[in-house]
Design goal:
- There is one protein chain.
- The chain is α/β, with parallel strands linked by helices.
- A hairpin with a 2-residue loop joins strand 7 and strand 8.
- It is globular and about 50 Å long.
- The longest helix has 15 residues.
- The protein starts with a strand and ends in a 10-residue tail after the last strand.
- A five-stranded mixed beta sheet has the order 3-2-1-9-10, with helices on one face. The chain has a five-stranded mixed beta sheet with strand order 4-5-6-8-7.
- It holds the Pfam family Metallophos.
- This is Serine/threonine protein phosphatase.
- InterPro entries: Ap4A_hydrolase, Calcineurin-like_PHP, Metallo-depent_PP-like.
- It comes from Carnobacterium inhibens.
């Protein structure tokens, strides 16, 4: 077990920021953890997802399942039922980078799903293996949060691990763990739609700086008992405009 852990916030297709952040990771001494939501929106979701897959398989990285990984899996399992929701959440950008721009005008959701599965057959099985949380020392890492109304946080539903918001942010944390999460951007947690710093409150640490919206990508270094350092890279390049 490595002595430190380097956790990267929600990347959402921002491949340039992702690669830049990884230059700060020492793979010899630090366990790499990706908090989820590698794809959808952003500069190049395909490259982010495939790089994350390589990091897991070749470097032992931990890649937590986010709600956007769940939506991609849902689309691949049932394209007609899940296509609209996936596209509303930036999924078309992912599909276009895996296949080609303008595919929605040419193919049905079922055809798009078939093309994706046939050209990238390892993608779906890989996403299905992603864990929902990771415990490390005094810390619990999870994409969205846990159900703090449960006596044991491990009773959290699979849906809440990747989707929960206010009921986790506002309820008292009595788990005995410091919970590190992404999913909800820190400008929303601060309530000013501006502050991209880490959000730290009640033994909860929000690390999604909203990079894809022009905010910042965080890489946060921990040892088993404390936060050691935060590396914050402001997004001065590609900003998702919401069109796909």
């Amino acid at each position: 077990m490595k002595k430190e852990l380097f956790a990267v916030g929600d990347v959402h297709g921002q491949i340039s920021l992702f690669k830049k952040m990884l230059t700060n990771w020492n793979e010899d001494t630090q366990q790499l953890l990706l908090i989820g939501d590698l794809g959808d929106r952003g500069e190049n979701p395909k490259e982010c997802l495939l790089l994350a897959k390589t990091l897991v398989e070749e470097k032992g990285a931990i890649y937590l399942k986010g709600n956007h990984e769940e939506m991609l899996l849902n689309f691949m399992n049932d394209p007609e039922r899940n296509y609209e929701l996936y596209c509303l959440n930036g999924g078309m950008k992912t599909l276009e980078t895996f296949l080609h721009p303008g595919l929605d005008a040419e193919y049905s959701p079922t055809e798009i799903g078939m093309f994706l599965a046939s050209r990238y057959p390892a993608l779906k099985p890989f996403l299905e293996t992603l864990p929902l949380y990771y415990e490390w020392g005094d810390f619990l890492f999870v994409h969205a949060g846990v159900d703090l109304s449960k006596r044991d946080w491990r009773q959290t539903s699979d849906e809440d691990y990747v989707w929960i918001r206010d009921s986790f942010h506002k309820k008292k944390n009595n788990t005995g763990k410091i919970i590190v999460f992404g999913h909800t951007i820190t400008p929303a947690l601060y309530g000013d739609n501006h502050t991209t710093d880490l959000w730290i409150k009640d033994n909860k640490i929000g690390i999604d700086g909203g990079a894809v919206y022009g905010g910042a990508l965080h890489g946060v270094l921990f040892n088993e008992t404390k936060l050691v350092k935060d590396i914050k890279i402001d997004n001065t390049g590609y900003v998702w405009d919401g069109r796909v």
